[in-house]
Design goal:
Blueprint (H helix, E strand, L loop, with lengths): L4 H20 L6 H23 L7 E5 L12 H5 L9 H14 L3 E5 L7 H8 L6 E5 L6 H9 L3 E7 L3 H8 L3 H14 L4 E7 L4 H4 L2 H9 L2 E8 L14 H17 L3 E5 L16 E4 L4 E3 L9 E2 L5 H4 L3 H8 L12 H4 L1 H8 L1
Helix pairs in contact: 1-2, 4-5
Bound molecules: iron/sulfur cluster (SF4).
């Protein structure tokens, strides 16, 4: 087993699943589905272990930016900067093949992002047919009407995760006037269908205290939120370094997440994850890989470097990408530089690996 932290990550995934089941409670209408989903996660882990014994390290998680299209234009949107391309986005046929291969390799969690993933409903429909994979769907919530809420209710292996920046003030400031209110309406629809939903919160030096406060977290839980993704801000936008978490904030983050986990009935997932616990970032296949909207396989969403393209090759072949291997071998590239993403902080060194 090349990646000894893989066992830690596998245990973490099962622990989160078990915790989600206890948060749902025995009367939760979709409990039978998620009980089977937990069993599917165990099967997937065994499958990955078998491949590892054959020398193929399969990461449990993919982050898949399925489109660059979006109905918003948020300040500092990394997708608009990093995913700009004239190449056509992947076809639905190719998505089906990629999801099918992912399932056969034991990849069991695929985060669907963008752009705005709800603009590609055909891809979500395709994902729904792979019930052994769990798909958290990161959405800005604006397209989440009654029809879509009903659709999510019928497809419990896709979990809606709505993006917020804080309260109305912070959210509308970055995402546009009226967005917070519209997200509020979407939450009501999700609660109307008793859905298990989450939120994605970008942690900056400015909103850190608010977003990690018991009052803010309790407020969202009272609104029905059961899953919190805290995404560390990465200064993709020029002159935005001041929004990066300070060293002290960074140092206190994993302890604060532990406190939230022990005091609130919800799941808390920091991204890029606890680098001390996993001895560095889980990018580049150590725990996850990123696929951009045109099929390029990248170490992470914030590191737009690639030497393999899923338009032409399989996930299996992509896993032996020389670039990904070099990044894993040069572990210092995966240990924290200044600002949310070690690879972005070390991007000139990563570029040298490609040249
Ligand atoms: S919703 Fe997401 S992808 Fe769309 S503009 Fe905002 S940050 Fe970018």
């Amino acid at each position: 087993m090349l990646f000894k932290q893989r066992d830690l990550l596998d245990k973490e995934i099962l622990a989160r699943f078990s915790q989600a089941l206890s948060i749902m409670g025995s009367s939760y209408p979709r409990l039978p589905f998620y009980l089977k989903a937990l069993a599917d996660q165990v099967k997937a882990q065994k499958l990955r272990k078998r491949y590892a014994q054959q020398g193929l390290e399969v990461p449990p998680i993919l982050i898949f930016s399925i489109t660059r299209r979006c109905n918003l234009n948020c300040a500092g949107c990394y997708s608009r900067v990093l995913h700009a391309s004239s190449q056509p986005e992947l076809s639905i046929k190719r998505f089906e093949e990629i999801f099918s291969e992912a399932a056969s390799l034991g990849i069991s969690v695929v985060l669907l992002a963008g752009g705005e993933p709800l603009v590609r409903r055909e891809v979500l429909n395709c994902a729904a047919s792979f019930s052994r994979i769990l798909f958290p769907v990161f959405t800005n919530g604006l397209l989440l009407d009654e029809d879509y809420a009903g659709w999510f209710a019928d497809h419990p292996n896709l979990l809606p995760v709505l993006s917020l920046e804080g309260r109305m003030e912070e959210t509308d400031l970055r995402r546009g006037k009226g967005v917070f209110q519209q997200v509020g309406k979407a939450l009501d629809l999700l609660n109307g269908h008793k859905l298990f939903w989450g939120t994605s919160l970008t942690l900056t030096s400015e909103n850190y205290s608010l977003l990690l406060s018991d009052a803010y977290v309790r407020g969202l839980i009272q609104q029905g939120c059961k899953l919190f993704f805290f995404v560390e801000y990465v200064p993709i936008q020029e002159n935005s370094e001041h929004l990066v978490l300070s060293d002290l904030q960074k140092e206190l983050l994993s302890q604060r997440i532990k406190e939230l986990k022990s005091s609130h009935p919800a799941l808390f997932v920091p991204l890029p994850g606890d680098e001390d616990y996993f001895e560095g970032c889980l990018a580049a296949g150590r725990g996850f890989l990123h696929i951009n909207p045109v099929g390029k396989v990248e170490p992470c969403p914030f590191a737009p470097f690639s030497d393999v393209d899923l338009s032409f090759t399989s996930i299996r072949d992509a896993l032996s990408s020389p670039l990904l291997a070099k990044i894993r071998e040069q572990h210092h590239l995966l240990s924290e530089g200044k600002g949310g993403c070690a690879l972005w902080a070390n991007r000139s060194l990563v570029q040298e690996l490609l040249d």
